[in-house]
Amino acid sequence: MDKGYSKRPVVEFHRMEFVELIKTPKVDSVVLRLPFQEPVEGTLCLTGHHLILSSRKSNSEELWLLHSNIDCLEKKFVGSTGYLTLKCKDFKTVFLEIPGMEECLNIASSIEVLSSLESVSLTYPFFFRPMFDIMEDGWQAFLPENEFARLLGEEWRLSQVNKTFEVCYSYPQTVIVPKSIDDATLLKSAAFRHGGRFPVLSYHHSPNGMVMMRSGQPLLGPNNKRCKEDERLVNAVLGIGKRGYIIDTRSAGGAQAARAKGGGVEPEAHYPQWRKLHKSIDRFYVLQESLIKLIEACTDTNSSMDKWISRLDSSNWLGHIKDVLTTACLAAQCIDREGASVLVHGSEGIDSTLQVTSLAQIILDPDCRTVRGFEALVEREWLQGGHPFADRCSKSAYTTSKPRFEGPVYLLFLDCVWQIYQQFPCSFEFNEHFLLYLFEHAYGSQFGTFMCNNEADRKKVKLSTKTVSLWSYVNRPEILQTFLNPLYEKNDGVIWPSVAPQSLMLWSGLYMRYEINQSASEDAWKEIVQIKQHDKELKLKAVKLRKQLSELQKEAVEKNIIVQ
């Protein structure tokens, strides 16, 4: 699939480091096999960042595969011919038939090294040179001071307390906090919260003025520590006589167990205006195991239907979707129907917390269901919010290495958005292709947007000046057009998704797109686009004809041809 560049991106042989890693830069007579395509014979080339196969035959499919998108490599030999199976982080599988055992081994060893470069500055985004004019700098498109401009005034302010990233390494330099709270109070609260993640504004619900905040867990520990400054900060968002809800994404038992390790949950005695709600959402490593089982089931096309469904069920992926959506709906319900503000946190506040706050905004805010609004949401909650993309997306479902910090937290969020999109297909300005695109670029990209774990790390490697933002590409009119939903009709209301088992579906357009030919659904989608376009043209024509009729009637009256 196109990763955001034309058929022939600018690819150069970079630096001596890469030359030393590429033992065999070119092999002829290599056969490429891809799902639903005829085999292609051509020349395989290795560069510092790409595996390229091109054929002299016209109209044949070329392969441009980023090394960083390769999750796992398998090799076998039959005689002197080597067979490489490249399993990618976006779930694509590439088969290569390479003549010569030595050539095959050299290609394999080079790919294994080049697909796991340790140095961030050696990755492709630092070498990518766009073949398009940058009309808007995506790095400047969603600054906090602009996104929250309408709120700044009597109740809220921008704080630069984290300007040097010393207060909270995973927060951005600028955060939105209650105006009545000074920076000294924020410092005390940060010392009382996991990772320094003191409560900050996530969302303001315009219809009733309620807010959603997010943070890390309080550090009560076994001695029940207290922080009056934190209490003051949390209570500052509540009106007189108002109550709020603390939604903890851990079970009650899990939250209490965290106290023994220095964490905990806000005690009712010190936060009397807040009611605690525990909604357990599994941690990133559990999601990783679930995704592996899901993809194993999806790629097992030889099993009986009963066994396939059993394997799908045992992965519990749809169960995770239900848990996250249920909690997001709860947060939205507290805000919109109960008229109460909400504070969301789990342990660190960088995974399940962001899933809940993001999805609650999709439910509540129609702007987040537009292309621009969704981009702003991803930027604000996930990128600036400190989700560790470099760790979580370093490996995908095919990895054979020992699990460390990887986990499909962001993918699960996108899947939840897709579920809501399926239930409200006319309420989203963007289409499924847009969600797929954002998934792909989180795992392997020529853009710098999803690199590193937080804003502090991005500043260190100067991403905004040395790489191109994904938003700079996506928001170009001709590209944006491909991501628009022709069925979209603006819906200013709150949308309430169903989490009943029969309402949740497997996202086959993602997990099975390389197992089941998607051409039929793509053709159907094209037909829908054409019908909508024809409908639009007919409506314009009807307006024009009505105008002409009105003018003719007016002229007829003036000439006494007809009596009014």
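[next item in queue]
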Amino acid sequence: MERRDFNYYEANAADISLEKITSSEKNAKILRRLRDGDYNLSILLLGSGRYVQFRMGKGDDLGWLGYFIGRSVKLQQLDIRELPADEGGQQIDAFFDGLARSQSIRSISCKQLGDYGCTALFRVLGNLSQLEGLSYSGTDFTLNRNGCFALGTLLESGVWKSLKELCFHGNNIGDDGVAALASGLRSIGPFLKTLGLSNNSIGNEGLLALVTALESCTSLEELDLSNNDFSLATAELRSLSDWLQSNQMDLKWLNFESCGINDEGLQALSEGATNHCKVLDLSENNSITALGLRYLSTPLQSVSCHLENLYLGRMNIGDDGAEVLARGLIGNKSLRCLHLCDDDEDIAITRAGWSAFSAVLCDTSTVNNTYLSNHTVQELWNDYHTEEDFDIDEDIVLYLQLNKEYPQYAARCKILMNHTHLDMVPFLRWGLKCLPLAVGWFESAKPCTTLSIYEDDLSRQVLDESEEVYQSRVLTALYEFVRGVPKKVLERRDELALVAAYDDKIAMVEEENKRLRKDNKRLLENVEERDEKIARKNKRLCSILDSVKKTLDD
């Protein structure tokens, strides 16, 4: 293929036959849509696989493809799954030369470009100053240490003022690669939202370099460090936790799946992760034991905990671990999903371990303890599993469904389900002023009698009782309350007598004020009546004077 510059493509674009520069009618249609500025073509997937829009084959001219991509003003996202073999690299160079002229592409995702393709990509990336997202992943490990240095230099140059997402998964960049990226990360830190470095052979030294670079990443929302080796990175994990706390971060997702984290590492990480993350993935960290889970359980109970989803699959938690995690749910108001197993996993928790969750979801010892139970957590396993897969009490399933489907009624339903007789004695100390509150509570709980949940596509009532039975419970409780009030009144008669005396004095003052207001009103009425009489006399005198004056004039 002869070397062609941009002027060549510009001169021939109007007359070129798209069918002659593509391998299929489908590919020619894609070029036509790019050329014509199709509004609906904002995302383009390239590759040789089945699930792509432009399937590269023999006969596709990559130079023309790159030209039309660079010319498009509608294309915003480009996904390059792989590039075909190109001896000499002229086609690949021509493709990226055309891509470099794009002013509309905001996100580029690449996979398996090979050494030459990776080098060609980095050569032109600096021209795409509008770029907001860059992702490079695959199994060919082409983003080596030199690639990281090249990328770090680009980041440090400040050419990307809008870059929000940077992901390099499965590239084996190692600790040296992270160190090479670090200075660049500091440059784009204030804008970066997502950083992905999973499966990159990163260890404790790389994590330390990364944490140092993260100091400027105050807007970060997602951090994926899964499938690296942090088994010896206790100090570095503590530094990461300190970074989360000192910068008051609010991460939406923190991923440490399969990172070799042990009990000490979890202790170092747990406080920052639970207080400043919404989703935390610790799956397949098999070195964590029930003892280590205690370091996670304690911050879960804190009022500062913001964690909403916690993934602990493939960790052989067992009954001891289940009991520790259940204690962590006591008082927790944020966690909604606690995933204790993954799709194809047999979980090693017996009925004894599950029973700990039952007591936390609904403590039936007293009405108050039932009210203080956990009404937030909704899942203990993912959708792949059902309760039939575990030796679990059906009450746990019911309580989880209540928390999920009827969170506003969960506490009331659990109270009515487990306490047929509501003891009103503790409320007597507040006297009759508590009665309207009791009536209001029963009114707010009445919808519980109509709520239904579904099990195996069958509907069942949450409360298996009629409206008449419910009303009988209400009347019984209120009768016991009213009946108990006089006894309390007699016990406090001295206080009541003093209140009555004050009431008498207040009544006397109000009566005196009432009399004074009447007297003032009467005086005001007399003054108004006197003024009216004077006005009438003045009017009559004026009339007489007018008559006398008229007579004298005649």
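[queue empty]
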